[in-house]
Amino acid sequence: MNNFLIITLFLIWFGIVAFLRYSRSWLLFYVIGAVGCAYWLILVFSNLFGLEPFLAHSVAWVVHIVSNLVGIPTRVFEGAPGVLLVLVIFQDIGWTVLQVGIESSGLLEISVLVSLLFFYPGWSLTRRAFLIGIGSIAMWCANIIRMLVIVVMLNQFGKEALVLAHMYIGKAVFFVLVIAIFWLIITRTTLKDLHKRKSQAHPVIG
Fold it and tell me: Does residue 104 have a pLDDT over 90?
């Protein structure tokens, strides 16, 4: 996708979002704004600012440090040909290579969370910024837990457990953690706000 097309699509999206806000079509404003924002965040931060390699690097190093603290030898290699970053697990029969790419970096999930919070109506900018910070850190930690689960399973059960650990157990753990984060950050906070407004509108008279 060339730069002219990217700029054109961004201006079209921005124009639609601005129009929906002006016309106070809040549902469409939220949906189109959040979906588009997530796409632009992924595009910009992965291609222009190099956030994806930074996230992958940080995840790999934290997993490496924690793994060694619990007695699981690991190594982190940088600059491998054709590979962004590789985390390898020591076993009796050799090393297992785990590539930490965009799917494992947490960039996708963080971008979605940031977009949903940024366009969320009714919250102040300060509150949204605070929740974005807390949610992004929580999502980063959830991704580290996912990778640690994979590392432990590989260390305990060998290379044969790679598919089970990565495709099923690791993703299931991460999915549960992501749902929990979204619920705590957005759904639970919204329900508390609604309950507070309801209590203020209909105060209990003793």
Answer: no
